[in-house]
Specification:
Elements (H helix, E strand, L loop, with lengths): L4 H6 L3 H9 L5 H18 L2 H29 L2 H23 L4 H13 L4 H11 L4 H31 L4 H19 L3 H4 L17 H30 L6 H20 L7 H20 L4 H11 L3 H15 L5 H30 L3 H16 L10 H5 L2
Length: 402
């Protein structure tokens, strides 16, 4: 049974409650921008190729800049970069929309898209580093990371729904304007919530030029983040392929909902529990669960049983996201916290995008079931890789009892 009492206890800290709630709005663009850019350019220029290229410029810039911004935050604190990034991202996004409305050359669109990707404000990474660096007990940090997983999953569900609303209004470009406003207003609310102060002091320990990548345990944990993103991307492509094959493309929303509902509930439930097993073994079991159910999904094309299997497959997803954050936080020295979490999200998003491209090619070349087979293989590899990551325990008392 889902017991929300620990979360109520957590939110008795009014400042933590404000930080968590104020972080939602500035994160919404993460679930909007890539797809909205593609749809806007395709609608206005009549070319999926141009839309994909402009969106790719955004994602490439995001991948390049995010770790650098994370390092800048670790070295100087989040206050130095939060507002400049939010302002630049907003201006670049608005400029992108205006350039598209005036049908400027796609090269100009790529330039503004690239600038928007370079300047995405590091709200999510600041919050995760805040949980990692806090003096709160392990079980409270676990609640925080569980909330993080649920919030990010909600963002990636709500983003396409927001885009769909503007598409119905015949104004796909307005989704990006909404995103720009959400960034600016959200950053203002987040900055006033106490999050920047709660992040803590800049660590003065000596730094290596490789940052968190210096540590083999961190590198292996980041491999798991990459495989997790690839698995999700292939699964999402598989859901879209099955919906299209069934002649009901709108059903993909229900498949996503079934998957995400179980993931969110189990993510919240996992946040309230501590287990004696080290995190890498718990993650191995979660990845194995996803591998098995991805294989089952590859054998089904009827929407009703496919949806039921999506629900069952999602049971491991929320806990895995929480475990991944806990593991990375414990493996990373405090002076590299923000950069490490930025690497994790960057690799996750890059793998997600690559999986969309690979999954689409797999559907065209090998049929509807192939993305789910690919997801099963990726998740099985991740399960095996878990045993190469150092054993980390959630709670100190659990570690002492081993």
């Amino acid at each position: 049974m889902l017991n929300l009492t620990p979360y109520k206890d957590l939110f008795r800290d009014r400042q933590l409650r404000r930080i968590v709630l104020s972080s939602i709005l500035p994160r919404l663009p993460a679930g909007i921008n890539g797809l909205a850019i593609t749809m806007m350019v395709q609608t206005l220029y009549g070319s999926f190729g141009a839309g994909g290229t402009v969106a790719a410029a955004y994602l490439v810039a995001l991948g390049i800049a995010s770790p650098l911004i994370g390092r800048l935050v670790d070295q100087n604190g989040p206050r130095l970069v939060m507002w400049p990034c939010a302002l630049m991202h907003t201006l670049a996004t608005v400029a992108l929309v205006v350039a598209a409305m005036y049908r400027l050359s796609p090269q100009w669109l790529m330039l503004f898209s690239f600038a928007a990707g370079l300047s995405f404000p590091p709200v999510s990474m600041t919050v995760r580093a805040m949980w990692r660096k806090s003096k709160l007990p392990d079980h409270t940090k676990q609640l925080g990371f569980a909330l993080e997983g649920v919030i990010m999953e909600t963002v990636f569900i709500c983003g396409p729904l927001i885009i769909s609303l503007f598409v119905l209004l015949k104004a796909p470009f307005a989704a990006l304007l909404f995103s720009a406003v959400a960034t600016l207003v959200g950053a203002a609310l987040f900055s006033r919530s106490g999050a920047l102060e709660r992040w803590g002091d800049v660590e003065t320990a000596p730094r290596h030029w490789l940052g968190p990548l210096r540590f083999s345990g961190v590198r292996r944990a980041l491999v798991l983040s990459t495989l997790l993103g690839g698995t999700f991307g292939l699964q999402e492509m598989g859901m879209m392929a099955v919906s299209k094959a069934a002649g009901n493309e709108a059903a993909v929303g229900f498949l996503f909902a079934a998957y995400s509902l179980s993931s969110g509930v189990m993510g919240l439930l996992y946040g309230t529990r501590q287990f004696a097993w080290p995190l890498n073994r718990q993650m191995a079991l979660g990845f194995l669960w996803i591998a098995l159910f991805s294989a089952f999904l590859s054998l089904n094309t009827a929407l009703l049983p496919f949806g039921a299997l999506c629900f069952l497959c999602g049971l491991a997803t929320g806990p895995l996201i929480t475990m991944s954050s806990l593991q990375l936080g414990k493996l990373t020295p405090a002076q590299y916290s923000t950069e490490a979490f930025t690497w994790s999200m960057t690799l996750f998003m890059m793998a997600l995008g690559a999986a969309f491209a690979v999954g689409g090619w797999m559907v065209e070349s090998y049929g509807t079931a192939s993305p789910m087979i690919g997801a099963a293989i990726a998740s099985a590899l991740a399960s095996a890789m878990c045993f190469r990551v150092p054993e980390i325990y959630v709670a100190a008392e659990a570690s002492a009892g081993e």
